[in-house]
Design brief:
Blueprint: H1 28-53, E1 76-77, E2 80-81, H2 85-107, H3 130-133, E3 138-147, E4 150-159, H4 185-271, H5 299-313, H6 317-327, H7 330-336, H8 346-366
Antiparallel strand pairs: 1-2, 3-4
Helix pairs in contact: 1-4, 5-6, 6-8
Biased composition (Basic and acidic residues): 204-249
Main location: nucleus
Subcellular location: Nucleus
Length: 367
C-alpha cells in the first residue's frame, strides 16, 4: 500500500514544512561553554585596557581548542569510529595530560609551595599524590561491642563537602569549560571571574617572587664579587708590601755591606806601613769601629756587626772576634795608633777603644 505524497496541494493530510531552523534546548554544558568563552573575552579585554593605560605591550594568548582530538568530518573517518568509546577515552586522556601540563607549568616556579588548605597562596607539588593534597571527603567510625558471647558493630560514616577552587579549573584562554554543577549562570560567571582573578594574583605573586629571588641572587653575586675583589686587592697590597720590604731590606743590606767593606779598607789603610793615612792626623770618624752607627757603640751593635762580618767572609764568628780583639787591644792600639790621632779626639778614641775591647771579650766568652 502506497502513501500519498504529503506535498500535493489540497491534500488534507499534508504536513507543513518548518518555517525556520529547529532550536534545540540549551544544555548546562552549552551554557557553561558560552559563559566561559564570554568571561574569557571580558577578562582579556580588561587586561588589554590595563596594559594600554600602563603603556605595556599585551600579547594576545593563543586560543586553545575545546576539542581534544579535533572534530572529524563524519562519525566514521579514515576507517575509525570517532564516536566509539576508544576515541572518547583517548580524548579524555589527552585532556588530562593538557591539564597536568598546565599545572606543572604554573607550579614550576614554586616547587615547594603549600597545599591548598594551608594559609599560603601557593599550589601543591604535582609530584605529591592527590590523596595527600586534598582533605578527605568522608570519614568512617566503627565501634564493636562484645558482651555475653554476643557482639555488634556500630558504623558511622560522615561526608564532607569538597569546595571547588576556581583558579584551579579555569584557563585564561581556550580549554574545556568547567562544570556549572548546581550554580546558576550568574553564580557561575562570578565564580569564573574569581578564578581569573586568582590566576592573575598567582601570576603577579610568582612574578614578585621571581624578582625577589633575582634581587637576592644579584645581591649574593655582588657580595661574592666584592669579596673576591677585596681579596685580590689585599693580595696585591701584600705583594706590593713584600716588594717594598724586600727593596728596603736590600737597600739596608747594601748599605751595611758597604760599611763592612769600608771597615776592612780603613784597617788596611791604618795598619799598613806607608799607607794612606800613616802620617796624617787621624780623627774619630777615620777609625773603623766595629759598628754600623758610631753614635752608639754597645754590645748589640757590635754583635750584629761581627756576625755579619763572619757570614760575609764565610768564617766562624769566634775567628772574627779573635781578629777584632787583637785589633782593639788597648796596649797595641794605644802604642801604634793613638799617637797619630788628633789631640782633640784622643780622649774620645781612648774611651771607645776600651769599650770595644770589653764588649768583644764578653762576646768571645759567650760563644
Amino acid at each position: 500500500m502506497a502513501f500519498a505524497s504529503s506535498n500535493r496541494e489540497g491534500d488534507a493530510y499534508a504536513i507543513p514544512r518548518p518555517s525556520g531552523r529547529i532550536k534545540l534546548k540549551e544544555t548546562s554544558g552549552d551554557v557553561a561553554s558560552r559563559i566561559y568563552a564570554r568571561e574569557q573575552r571580558r577578562y582579556q579585554r580588561q587586561q588589554e585596557r590595563i596594559a594600554r593605560v600602563n603603556g605595556l605591550p599585551f600579547p594576545r594568548p593563543r586560543s586553545r581548542s575545546t576539542s581534544p582530538l579535533g572534530a572529524p568530518r563524519t562519525d566514521i573517518d579514515g576507517g575509525v569510529d570517532w564516536a566509539s568509546w576508544s576515541a572518547r577515552r583517548a580524548g579524555n586522556r589527552k585532556q588530562r595530560m593538557e591539564e597536568e601540563e598546565k599545572w606543572m607549568e604554573e607550579d614550576i616556579s614554586r616547587p615547594w609551595a603549600a597545599w591548598e588548605f594551608s594559609h599560603s597562596t601557593g599550589t601543591a607539588d604535582p609530584t605529591i599524590p592527590a590523596r595527600y593534597r586534598t582533605m578527605p571527603s568522608s570519614s568512617t567510625f566503627q565501634f564493636t561491642h562484645s558482651a555475653s558471647g554476643s557482639s555488634f558493630t556500630f558504623t558511622h560514616t560522615e561526608s564532607y563537602p569538597q569546595p571547588r577552587t576556581a583558579f584551579r579549573e579555569v584557563h585564561l584562554s581556550g580549554g574545556v569549560a568547567p562544570s556549572m554543577g548546581s550554580m546558576t549562570p550568574e553564580e557561575y560567571a562570578q565564580w569564573l571571574r574569581e578564578g581569573f582573578a586568582g590566576l592573575q594574583n598567582r601570576a603577579e605573586m610568582n612574578e614578585r617572587e621571581r624578582r625577589r629571588w633575582e634581587q637576592t641572587r644579584q645581591e649574593q653575586e655582588r657580595v661574592i664579587r666584592e669579596e673576591q675583589e677585596e681579596k685580590q686587592r689585599q693580595r696585591r697590597e701584600r705583594r706590593a708590601e713584600k716588594r717594598r720590604t724586600e727593596e728596603t731590606a736590600r737597600i739596608v743590606e747594601d748599605g751595611k755591606s758597604a760599611k763592612r767593606a769600608r771597615y776592612v779598607a780603613r784597617w788596611k789603610a791604618i795598619t799598613t806601613t806607608g799607607g794612606e793615612i800613616e802620617e796624617t792626623n787621624i780623627t774619630f770618624d777615620d777609625i773603623p769601629w766595629p759598628v754600623y752607627d758610631t753614635a752608639s757603640i754597645d754590645k748589640p751593635q757590635v754583635k750584629e756587626f761581627m756576625v755579619d762580618m763572619a757570614r760575609q767572609n764565610g768564617e766562624d764568628v769566634k775567628k772574627t772576634l779573635r781578629e777584632t780583639i787583637r785589633a782593639f787591644h788597648p796596649d797595641r792600639f794605644f802604642g801604634r795608633i793613638l799617637p797619630r790621632v788628633r789631640p782633640d779626639d784622643r780622649e774620645r778614641v781612648k774611651e771607645a777603644v776600651e769599650s770595644c775591647s770589653r764588649i768583644i771579650n764578653a762576646l768571645a766568652g759567650e760563644l
